[in-house]
Design goal:
Length: 309
């Protein structure tokens, strides 16, 4: 168990040589674990809303970049201290770098079975299988929000937020869970509400957030959306029943077509905003997500940036 007070936030931007600047990666979250003033571990987090079948290679590249950054800093310090010329080896025999662990936090519903290591990505034939033990592997750590997190071990509002994500496909079960935790959901922090809304792909929730308030009444927002969904379901069922029993004229048909077009447009807009929310959450751009909720012009810029049409 890692105590939060021993962690210090680090820059999520991975430094690269100038010629490779376009390939610069920004980690979703990075913290350094300290014991006193001694660095023990660099802990990084990568959010995934869908299975990425190249994830072992991506994580290996990210970790290697963090190790390379540490080596470069040590080399720079050694060159200053010992007057070593540029171009000559400056990493000494006794020098050591801090271990890096990357945790992949997976929000998707489909079970992430593979790939969980570099070998899961490699093609071994009958003839090359014998070489497998000699090919370096690189396992990754995937933590599924839906399956792997025991919320009983959590003691902050994160417990209820993760619990919500684990119950979100249960219909009435989700409503009961929210009611049982009404006190927490009624005073959820702005960051917690934003995380829940984006992770749950709650477009309506995101649009309803007040970015200026320190806490949000997510219980009321969730309850309103639930009741609205029930009402819309009943309404739709009634309309379908009426449609089967009526013969509409040309004008009614045109009007119905217009309404369907409007609904399709509205649904497409919500799906587009949900996709944008996923990408901003994945890239840890929470401030951009907050601004996009209330700024239509800025939201349009982000749509173009992520090529969401």
């Amino acid at each position: 168990m890692i105590r939060p007070n021993l962690l210090q936030k680090q820059s999520p931007v991975q430094a690269v040589p100038e010629y490779a600047a376009q390939y610069k990666h920004i980690r979703d979250m990075v913290h350094m674990l300290y014991e006193g003033e001694v660095e023990l571990l660099l802990l990084a987090l990568e959010n995934q809303t869908e299975i990425d079948y190249s994830e072992p290679l991506r994580v290996m590249e990210f970790d290697a970049a963090d190790y390379r950054r540490q080596v470069r800093l040590i080399e720079e310090e050694n060159r200053k201290r010992f007057g070593i010329k540029t171009g000559l080896p400056a990493f000494a025999k006794e020098d050591r770098i801090t271990p890096v662990i990357t945790l992949v936090l997976y929000f998707g519903e489909e079970e992430w079975e593979k790939p969980r290591s570099l070998h899961d990505m490699l093609k071994f034939t009958e003839k090359s299988e014998i070489l497998r033990p000699f090919v370096p592997d690189y396992p990754i750590h995937v933590l599924s929000v839906q399956r792997d997190i025991d919320i009983s071990l959590l003691h902050t509002e994160l417990k209820q937020v993760i619990g919500f994500l684990q119950h979100q496909k249960e219909g009435d079960g989700l409503k009961r869970y929210v009611e049982e935790n009404r006190e927490v959901f009624s005073h959820l922090s702005a960051a917690g509400a934003l995380f829940l809304s984006a992770a749950a792909k709650g477009t309506k929730l995101l649009k309803g957030l007040n970015k200026k308030e320190e806490s949000c009444d997510m219980f009321k927002a969730l309850d309103d959306i639930y009741e609205s969904g029930v009402a819309e379901g009943r309404k739709l069922g009634q309309k379908e029943a009426e449609a089967r029993g009526e013969r509409r004229g040309e004008k009614r048909g045109e009007k119905r077509g217009e309404k369907r077009g409007e609904k399709r447009g509205e649904k497409r807009g919500e799906e587009r905003f949900a996709a944008l929310s996923e990408r901003l959450l994945r890239d840890a751009r929470l401030e951009d997500l907050k601004r996009a909720i209330g700024d239509r012009e800025y939201r349009g810029r982000l749509y173009r940036e992520y090529r969401l049409r």
